[in-house]
Amino acid sequence: MLRNLTNINIRASTSAIVSQWYFYRHAIPGLDPRTIALAACNRALSNLLGTISLSSFLVLLVRLPLLVMPSRMGKAILLLGFYNLTLPLSVLGQPLTLTYASIHSTSLKESSNQLQRMQLVRTDNNVFPSIYTRPAYPLAKMLLSAIRIIACLSFGLGAWVNTARDPKGSSLYGYMVGIVAGTISWGILGATEVTLKAIVDSAFICVASDDADGSHCREAYEAFQ
């Protein structure tokens, strides 16, 4: 719960920073980056605290039955279409909904409704925006996950090989060092991946909310086309 709340808080703060850069980076006089970052964090802990808490609660509410029930009962619930029954709650708790709410200061329900009307988002069931009109956005998210996996495997394998080649070490010792190195890198890169995915989501929402020609940032507009 605490980890999920922290990730959502990071997303809300990152969304505010990205939207400030996207729409107002050419404003005169410009604001100091540190001032923008502090204002975004303060906003996430004040004005957006209720939205953040509600989003975290909805995510936990959807996952909790599957976490506390025995594995066999959980599988039975999945067969009965559990996710279809909880779809309205899942929509309100999805990352893009919170990102839109953080950027435009709207409620989760209003943000979900606005997402369905965006040109860059095409819904397959009129409820959950899961299919996008251009492949750039889902491809960027998949690349971030793939880079994290490849980097962790590389760190673990490198630590294993270097330790095993040490005359004072052994293959088993190198194997354990490799596991520890991979686990540590997985945790560290996980925090980086959360932030980078929040940046991608924020840029995507800003582009989708921009004018038809992407007048505020032509480069970002072309990247998601």
Question: Secondary-structure map with pairings?
Answer:
Layout lengths: L1 H23 L8 H12 L4 H20 L2 H9 L2 H4 L1 H7 L1 H10 L3 H9 L4 E2 L8 E2 L3 H29 L6 H39 L8 H6 L2
Antiparallel strand pairs: 1-2
Helix pairs in contact: 1-2, 1-3, 1-7, 1-10, 3-6, 7-8, 7-10, 9-10
What's the number of extended β-strand segments?
Answer: 2
| String of helices and strands | HHHHHHHHEEHHH
The level of helicity is over 70%
What percent of residues are in strands?
under 5%
* Low-confidence runs: 123-131
User: Which shape, going by the Cα principal axes?
Assistant: globular
Number of helices: 11
Give the rounded overall mean pLDDT. 78
Can you list the strand order of the major beta sheet? 1-2
CA gyration radius, whole angstroms: 21 Å
Biggest sheet details: 2 strands, antiparallel
Head-to-tail CA distance between termini: 36 Å
The tally of domains stands at 1
Keywords for this entry:
225 residues; 11 helices
Walk me through the structure.
- With 225 residues, this protein is mostly helical.
- The chain has one domain.
- Helices cover 75% and strands 2% of the residues.
- It contains eleven helices and two strands; from the N terminus they run H-H-H-H-H-H-H-H-E-E-H-H-H.
- The chain has a two-stranded antiparallel sheet with strand order 1-2.
- Strand 1 and strand 2 (131-132) form a beta hairpin.
- The chain starts with a helix and ends with a helix.
- 25% of the residues are buried.
